[in-house]
Amino acid sequence: MSDPEALLDEYFVWLVVEKGRSRATVDAYRRDAAGFIAWVKDRNTAIVDVDPRDIDDYLVSLQDRGRAPSSIARALASLRGWYGFLAGEGIIGADPTLHVRGTRRGRSLPHPLDEAEMLTLLDSVPNTTALDRRDRALLELLYGTGSRVSEAVGVHIEDLDFDEELIKVTGKGSKQRLVPMGRTLRRALEEYLEPVGRSALARTRSSVLLLNARGTPLSRQGVDTIIARRALAVGIERSRISAHVFRHSCATHMLAHGADIRVVQELLGHSSIATTQIYTAVSVSSLQQVYRGAHPRAHG
Fold first, then answer.
1. In degrees to the nearest 10, what's the CA dihedral of 221, 222, 228, 230?
2. How many structural domains does the chain have?
3. Which of 107, 134, 162 is the endpoint of a domain?
4. Angle 278-280-286 (CA atoms, 0-180°, nearest 5)?
5. Would you call 101 a catalytic residue per the annotation?
C-alpha cells in the first residue's frame, strides 16, 4: 500500500480504536498530514520513500512561510506519530523522523554564507567539462535568482529569455514568476548551452535545462550531491551548505546592499512579506556585529 490517503486513514483508525484519541485530535493530525502530503507530492517523492532530509526540508519550508515555532513543533509531532506507526507496521523500513530535531531548527534564523565564501565557491567551478558547466550554471542559478531547488530543477530551456535577461520560474501551486538573469548567470547559462555543455549530456528530447550525467533531468538529490562536492573542494563544511542556503544568501546579501524588501519578496516568490522579513533580521544581525566592532561609541 503506497497511497498516502489510504496510509493516513489506516493510521487514524488505529489512533481512534487502539489509542482512544478524540475526533478533535485526529482532525488536527489530518490537517498537519495533509500539508505534508501536498508538499511531498510537489517534490515527486512517495510518502514511503521520505528520508530525514525531506522531513528537515519540510520544517524549513514551514519556517519560511512564517509558521510559529509551536506550529512547526506540532507538525513534527504529527509526522513522528504517523511514521512511527508506519515503521511499527512494517510498511516502511525505518522511521525518517527518528533523529530529526525540528524545534531548534524552527527557532533559528537562516545561516547564509558570507559574500566572500559564496563568491569563492562560485568562482571555483571551472568550465572544462560538460558537467563543470552544468554545475556552474546550477550554482549561479540558485544564488542569482534565489530559486527553491524544486524551481531550479524545473526550469526548461524555453523558460530562458536571453534578450530580456529574464527566467520564468514555476513555484508553489504552479504559480509562475519572472526573475532577472544577472550577467554572471547569463554567461554561465550560455556556456552550459554551448555544444560542449548540455548537448554533450543530453540523451533524450527533454527540454529540461539541468541534466545529470546520464542525460536525464537532474533531481533534488543530484543537486545536493553537486553542492556537497563543490563545497568540499573549497573547504566549506557539508553541514553549512545546501540549496536552501543559496536562497538564504541571495536574499540576505541583497538586503544588506540596500534592496527594497518588496523587491526581494517578489524575487523569492513569497506570498507574505512576513516571510521575507526573516532575512532582514539576518541583515540586522550582521549590521550590529560590524557596528559594535567599528563604532567608537559602541561600547561607551
1. -160
2. 2
3. 107
4. 115
5. no
Residue 247 annotated as catalytic:
yes
Write the CB contacts of 196 (distance below 8 Å, at least 6 apart in sequence): 130, 133
Q: pTM of this prediction?
A: 0.62
Domain final position from 73, 91, 107: 107
Q: Are 218 and 227 in contact (CB under 8 A)?
A: no
77-118 pLDDT, tens per residue? Answer: 899 999 998 988 888 888 999 878 754 444 455 688 999 999
- Does residue 172 carry a catalytic annotation? yes
Query: Can you read off the three cell numbers belonging to residue 122?
Result: 562560485
148 is catalytic: yes
Q: Which of 220, 230, 253, 270 does the annotation list as catalytic? A: 270
Name 1's Cβ contacts closer than 8 Å, sequence gap at least 6. Answer: 7, 10, 91
What is the per-residue pLDDT for 205? 87
